[in-house]
Amino acid sequence: MSVFPLTCGAFPVRETHETTVECTPATAGDLAGVVEIQNFTASTSHARFATQPSSVEERRGWFAQFAETGPYQMLVARCDDQVIGYACSQRYRDQEAFRETVEVSIGLREGSKGQGTGTALYRALFGLLADEAVHVALAGIALPNDASVALHRKFGFTEIGTFHEYAVKNGRYVSSLWMERLRPAPFPEPEQPGPVSDRVSDPAIEGCVDSCGSCGGRWAWRGPCSLADDVQRGHGPEGPQGRAVPRPR
After folding, report:
1. For residue 76, with 0-12 CB atoms within 10 Å meaning exposed, 13-18 middle and 19 or more buried, which class applies?
2. pTM
3. Has residue 10 got a pLDDT over 80?
């Protein structure tokens, strides 16, 4: 198994410190950490439509689709032997006609957001999929979630359309924006880190909170780099309605 270290802390997040984050293909031993992230997200937001927590046993069938090669892959980010995030490309439909289509998903543990881990996971995942028979990647984003839309735009996704009020959770209707990324799609250009006050941390949506990358693609499964905290600047990116995504003050 290959391990790719990522050094965070080059730019202060909460405190200035060095933390080693490792990203590797997910194993069965990582499933409990992934399920914990998914259950927390489902219980605290509408990013996941599940209304009841899942057990590890219940998710083993879903996890069995992933491998270290092929269109369906999962990566996990670990820090101090704890799974702090994951990104995956999963089966979109069971029919053979959709064999070159994947649906992507990303999730981060609470407390690990806004540190560049999500961006690094997506960069690595799409780097791997570039060598596979994947023609299109799809993403469904429960609205509102400007940060998630911005992240997917940065990785070459474009809006397809919105399913309006097609789900019900916690007594309210939920709409989803669907986006697509046709192959080949360019990786995002790196941006330089800005002041700590410009950091974005949107806890609402399953880890889709990293809105610009700073490693310039050097890290994506090609070796280590020093990844500064991802930041969001006042001039962009834009939300789904064409407005600047608000920054916390």
Report:
1. buried
2. 0.70
3. no
